[in-house]
UniProtKB/TrEMBL annotation:
SUPFAM superfamilies listed in its UniProt record: Periplasmic binding protein-like II
UniProt lineage: Bacteria, Bacillati, Actinomycetota, Actinomycetes, Micrococcales
Protein name, as recorded: Extracellular solute-binding protein
Pfam family, one: SBP_bac_1
Domain of life where this protein originates: Bacteria
Signal sequence range: 1-22
Length: 438
């Protein structure tokens, strides 16, 4: 019998305590860096205020400081930054962009979730507006392109990678190291299980998180970028045996997750990990800043999960994706000033602040990462990249791929569907709007 662990009220209180203690027409002429010709000493007859919207409430304080730097270099422009609740943002933004009180510049989603705003004529194409975009990586720009015209409708602001975080102190206590083979990965999970430590902090109550964990654990098994290309060419679909096998592996690993994992929320899983009751957390690079601020004493490492025997790939991978973009509202009355801001957001000064202050992977060319763990995650991704498949390619219709896997994964853990059933559910759902090879 496997000994299961449940999240205790004491653990929740402990982490909450840690969290509580944790630290116009008068537009200026711009130079290469998007700064005003007169520098910080210029006086303005008229000052323009740009309304800038975001879904990143957790970054609001940092963005206030970041935009102070822009304002110092562009004294005729004030940035009024406002962040909204993540789960309500899409609807708020859609309403704002079609009304008279919306933003001038806004964070917009990537890939398929960008398309409704492009199709609605709510955003301005930036190809000829922000020359620096020509230097961005094409794969990152794919998250900002219009599906029909191929134009770029946003300045990418962050990329994310997906991997496994681990508590180095727990690993050391139990004589464990980063696994180099699938057998070693299973053995370390068994060792932790036997010691009464939750191996994998997973919360499947929030369906959106399920496909993230699936890709963190099994992307190499189904084939990563090679499988993506086969789907695009029409050579296979989601009922492919390798993809079904990856879902079977996902189910097999449930024994190392918290008891009744579908009743455990995403934030509960974060608490398990930051309270050091769980040894590993399969998630995105966006978790790092939260983990470190919630428990500054947490000793972290990262690794890619080795593929099981007979996998499509013989090496591990890190899934990745473009997180979002800065878009220019077609309804803005301050277009020139907004273009000045967007040019700055595409530059190295802003990109380096994203890396240093927000601990996010800025896609701006030439940005370096001072945080060692960030650099390690980035290196792993560069060595063996893979797409976060259901987000990158399968959010262009209804239902979206991540929702199908999220709900299917929940049914998998509840024993309502087997692996083949989940794969069939994904394929059937996507077939409503997607045809392999098109």
């Amino acid at each position: 019998m496997h000994r299961r662990r449940v999240l205790t009220a004491t653990a929740v209180a402990a982490v909450l305590a840690l969290a509580a203690c944790a630290p116009g027409e008068d537009a200026p002429e711009t130079g290469d860096a998007g700064t005003s010709a007169g520098g910080g000493g210029e006086e303005c007859a008229d000052r323009t205020t740009l309304d800038v919207w975001s879904w990143r409430t957790e970054d609001a304080d940092a963005y206030e400081q970041i935009f102070d730097v822009f304002e110092e270099a562009n004294p005729c422009i004030t940035v009024a930054f406002q962040a909204f609740k993540n789960t309500e943002y899409n609807q708020i933004l859609q309403t704002g962009l079609t009304g008279s009180d919306g933003p001038d510049v806004a964070q917009v989603r990537s890939y398929g979730l960008l398309q409704p705003l492009v199709d609605g004529g709510n955003l301005v194409a930036l190809d000829d507006v922000v020359p620096a975009l020509a230097e961005f990586d094409d794969a990152i720009l794919d998250g900002a392109r219009g599906q029909e015209d191929g134009a770029i409708y946003g300045v990418p602001f962050a990329s994310q990678t997906i991997q496994v975080y681990y508590n180095t102190a727990i690993f050391s206590e139990h004589g464990l190291s980063e696994p180099e083979t699938w057998e070693e990965f299973i053995q370390l999970n068994d060792t932790l299980e036997a010691a009464g430590v939750t191996p994998l902090a997973v919360g499947a109550k929030d369906a959106w998180f399920v496909p993230t964990v699936h890709d963190a654990l099994t992307a190499a098994q189904y084939g990563g970028a090679e499988f993506q290309q086969a789907l695009r060419e029409g050579a296979t679909d989601f009922t492919d045996p390798a993809y079904v096998a990856s879902i079977e592996t996902f189910k097999d690993l449930e024994q190392y997750m918290p008891e009744d994992v579908v009743a455990v929320g995403y934030t509960d899983a974060q608490v398990l990990f930051t309270a050091e009751q769980a040894a590993m957390f399969a998630g995105g690079s966006y978790e790092l800043a939260f983990f470190q601020s919630t428990n500054p004493d947490l000793e972290l490492g990262v690794f890619q999960v080795p593929p099981p025997p007979n996998s499509a790939l013989d090496h591990p991978v890190s899934a990745g994706y473009a997180d979002g973009n800065w878009g220019l509202s077609a309804a803005s009355d301050s277009t020139e000033e907004a273009e000045t801001l967007l040019s700055w957001l595409a530059g190295s000064e802003f990109g380096q602040m994203v890396a240093n202050d927000l601990k996010q992977f800025s896609p701006v060319p030439g940005v370096s990462f001072d945080e060692p763990l960030m650099q390690e995650m980035w290196n792993l991704y560069q060595e063996n990249p893979a797409p976060y498949l259901l987000l990158v390619d399968y959010r262009y219709g209804d239902p979206v791929g991540t929702d199908l896997m999220g709900e299917g994964g929940q049914q998998l853990f509840l024993d309502e569907l087997d692996a083949a059933g989940v794969a069939a559910r994904i394929q059937d759902g996507l077939s409503a709007w997607w045809t392999p090879g098109q």
